[in-house]
Amino acid sequence: MTAVETKTPADFWFDPLCPWAWMTSRWMLEVEKVRPVEVRWHVMSLAVLNEDKLDTMDERMRTLMRTEAWGPVRVCIAAAAKHGEDVLGPLYTALGTRFHNQGLPRNHETIVAALEEAGLPAELADVAHSDAFDGELRASHAEGISKVGQDVGTPIIAVPGADGEQIAFFGPVVTPAPKGEAAARLWDGTLLVASTPGFYEIKRTRTQGPVFD
């Protein structure tokens, strides 16, 4: 009998609104194919993250945070609360494909179509305009952001380190999403630098927008 390989859990906090988190999430699905990793999806919120920073934003971003940013995360957290966190992966894929790859509006009709694709009740879309699950949303957001600090956004990834302590980091921010062995190399390298004591940041100016392939 062949021993079953134990998979390393990778906790991934996302906001379906963010195109860069979407790129990272598609890379993580590739990582699952080439490394013994299992992604566990969680919700964080750009609306919550930025609610105290609205006065510093331009009008377009301020409007986005006050209106469109709340609905998708509220629907995701309600779906997880009612149907279990295992629904978040399929729902995120259904929402993200529509928002980012297809460029569909982030409205009620698009959210309903995503819910139906994920096998979830269409009435969950009504939660987009309700604060009924905001407590759960804020708790999930706080769990993720507490691992890396307030100076970052989405996505956040956390994995167990060699000593059993969790290693958490923002990103990586990458486009297009690497596939196959390229995805594996980026994963290995990310874990290497993230696990280095005292390491905090590598960054350069982005010269290309998200490539949704």
UniProtKB/TrEMBL annotation:
Gene3D superfamilies: Glutaredoxin
Pfam families xref list: Rv2466c-like
Top-level taxon of origin: Bacteria
InterPro entries registered for this protein in UniProt: Rv2466c-like, Thioredoxin-like_sf
Protein name: DsbA family protein
Native species: Streptomyces roseoverticillatus
Taxonomic placement: Bacteria, Bacillati, Actinomycetota, Actinomycetes, Kitasatosporales
